[in-house]
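Quick one before lunch.
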Amino acid sequence: MSIIVDKINYIYEAGTSFERHALKDVSCVIEKGEFIGLIGHTGSGKSTFIQHLNGLNKATSGHIYYDGQDIYEKGYNMKELRSKVGLVFQYPEHQLFESTIFKDVCFGPKNQGLSKQECELRAFESLKLVGLDEKFYYNSPFDLSGGQKRRVAIAGVLAMKPEVLILDEPTAGLDPKGRDEIFSVLENLRKTGITIILVSHSMEDVATHVDRIMVMNDGILKYDDTPKNVFRHHKELEEIGLAAPKVTYIMNDLKNAGFDVDTDAITIEEAKKSILEIL
Ligand SMILES: Nc1ncnc2c1ncn2[C@@H]1O[C@H](COP(=O)(O)OP(=O)(O)OP(=O)(O)O)[C@@H](O)[C@H]1O
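Model of the adenosine-5'-triphosphate complex:
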């Protein structure tokens, strides 16, 4: 699996007084198994960008290649692309509607025309992947906690066996327990080799999990690098209303105060190790 995004632009309401240039010459390459955090403040273009990756939006100009094939070429199978690139929308629990959790997770594969047996097998596999206890499978999804509902919604997308899983703000509105549940699911999923793109407002949330951070600002892909390399730009990030993890600031303050600490530390563990080394 690979996705090549080549200089895409997207303009909402082109030619009207509401025209909005939401993506500006965005280019990147996404490879199998990557765990990417897509960060930016409200209105920076994150949702618009991810909706291009599974063909929900068509770029005004530029190209996207999935496994080397131009998805805008005449005759390209968009339906298949949508099953390969699974999208978990914001507040996905609003789309749970079946009477039981199990039926809800079966809905996607059923829609793909798979046999009842295959749908049920996939539902079991994906509910297992998101770590939901079997005792809940035949309960109503509405009896679950916020974190559990989100996990069911993620299982619903996983049941379609996507190669890429995109999650738009999957922890929004959850309490810390629910947030930890989601990150532990994502950590388990990454071991399966699936490519994960996590959209978030919060550097703190993604910093310790992802391998790569893409920062969007006003429709431009401003940074696309490892978390450490991105956080080296913490001053520029602040200028666009974002912040590096708190640890980055603490380590920089210590450095400025004359201590020889690792200013690239982005987890509490790395910071502790670096501080202990100088004591
Ligand atoms: N349907 C639409 N019609 C017109 N403009 C839109 C539409 N959807 C988004 N926009 C505009 O395009 C820009 C990018 O929006 P987008 O939703 O992609 O940003 P975002 O980073 O996902 O924001 P959020 O974090 O709030 O979801 C914004 O200026 C937004 O107002």
